[in-house]
């Protein structure tokens, strides 16, 4: 299988982080349905076993391996990767899906909190990619997927740390795609308002009051309407077609369009995001093929 041919899931081995919930959980089920052997990572041991148990029940002959790991512990990740490589010297698909949220302005977020976010959202995918790259290179036609975010396309106020981590992952993915061309395919994914628990589980900076954090979580959660199962289907379709970039949901596509048209002044328009996103599907229908070209 060459990196330019459609990705074949059946019989492939995939390593997936953040597999215990949200998009990661749905990706695990989608990969299992396609006959992919699974190595599932998450720090939530109970949630991870629940997902793995459901997959084993539905696909009793499918190999499913679980690895409990906290991506914030960067020094432990090479050892985690070494154990995975020992069992799977060839890896066909690596999906760096795990991530965390952290609201607050730059002045409200401490240096320690900023580093914590960067460690999980950016540095951990870099470490895992570096450590597992030999196994990817050993599998002709292998593929790498990194989940950035809508906030890797735009940088709203109150999301400086999160945007920094997701822009960094985007840049890493794009540069790596050019370096690995012809050897390993690379897809960077920018989910918009996907219905997950990211707003509920986002960390509150020490500089933000509990009431302000609660209101921000509620406002953010109201924008999360795109089904995680559908997002996973979109992502696996992009992998199969070897797409370089995927925008998931109209809530990512329309802001990306505005930011490209108004790269230096998009926020005065997008600050009215709830109203804009409400009409996003209707607007996008007037732009045939826009999403496919992203």
UniProtKB/TrEMBL annotation:
SMART domains: PKS_KR
Source organism phylogeny: Bacteria, Bacillati, Actinomycetota, Actinomycetes, Micrococcales
Gene Ontology cellular component list: membrane
Pfam families recorded: adh_short (PF00106)
GO molecular function: oxidoreductase activity
Record keywords: Oxidoreductase
The protein, known as: SDR family NAD(P)-dependent oxidoreductase
Family as reported in the entry's similarity comment: Belongs to the short-chain dehydrogenases/reductases (SDR) family.
Domain Ketoreductase: 12-197
KW Oxidoreductase (keyword) present: yes
SUPFAM superfamilies with a match to the protein in the record: NAD(P)-binding Rossmann-fold domains
PROSITE patterns per UniProt: ADH_SHORT
Keyword Iron appears in the UniProt entry: no
PANTHER family: DEHYDROGENASE/REDUCTASE SDR FAMILY MEMBER 7B, DEHYDROGENASE_REDUCTASE SDR FAMILY MEMBER 7B
InterPro entries membership: KR_dom, NAD(P)-bd_dom_sf, Sc_DH/Rdtase_CS, SDR_fam
Protein source organism: Kocuria rosea (Deinococcus erythromyxa)
């Amino acid at each position: 299988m060459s990196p330019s041919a459609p990705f074949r899931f059946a019989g492939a081995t995939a390593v997936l982080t953040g597999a215990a919930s949200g998009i990661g959980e749905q990706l695990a089920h989608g990969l299992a349905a396609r006959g992919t052997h699974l190595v599932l990572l998450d720090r939530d041991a109970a949630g991870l076993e629940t997902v793995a148990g459901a997959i084993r029940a539905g696909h009793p002959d499918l190999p499913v391996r679980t690895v409990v790991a906290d991506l914030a512990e960067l020094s432990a990740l090479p050892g985690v990767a070494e154990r995975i490589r020992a069992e799977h010297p060839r890896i066909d698909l690596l999906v760096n899906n795990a991530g965390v949220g952290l609201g607050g302005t730059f002045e409200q977020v401490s240096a320690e909190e900023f580093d914590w976010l960067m460690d999980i959202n950016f540095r951990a995918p870099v470490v895992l990619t570096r450590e597992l790259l030999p196994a990817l290179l050993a599998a002709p036609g292998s593929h790498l997927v990194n989940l950035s975010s809508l906030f890797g396309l735009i940088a709203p106020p109150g999301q400086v740390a999160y945007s920094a981590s997701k822009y960094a992952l985007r840049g890493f993915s794009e540069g790596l795609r050019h370096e690995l061309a012809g050897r390993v395919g690379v897809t960077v994914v920018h989910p918009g308002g996907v219905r997950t628990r990211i707003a509920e589980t986002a960390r509150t900076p020490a500089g933000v009051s509990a009431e302000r954090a609660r209101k921000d979580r509620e406002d953010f959660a109201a924008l999360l309407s795109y089904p995680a199962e559908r997002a996973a289907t979109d992502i696996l379709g992009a992998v199969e077609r070897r797409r370089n970039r995927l925008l998931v949901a109209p809530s990512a596509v329309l802001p990306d369009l505005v930011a490209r048209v108004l790269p230096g002044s998009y926020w005065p328009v997008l600050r009215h995001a709830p109203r804009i996103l409400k009409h996003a599907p209707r607007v996008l229908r007037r732009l045939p093929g826009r999403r496919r070209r992203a």
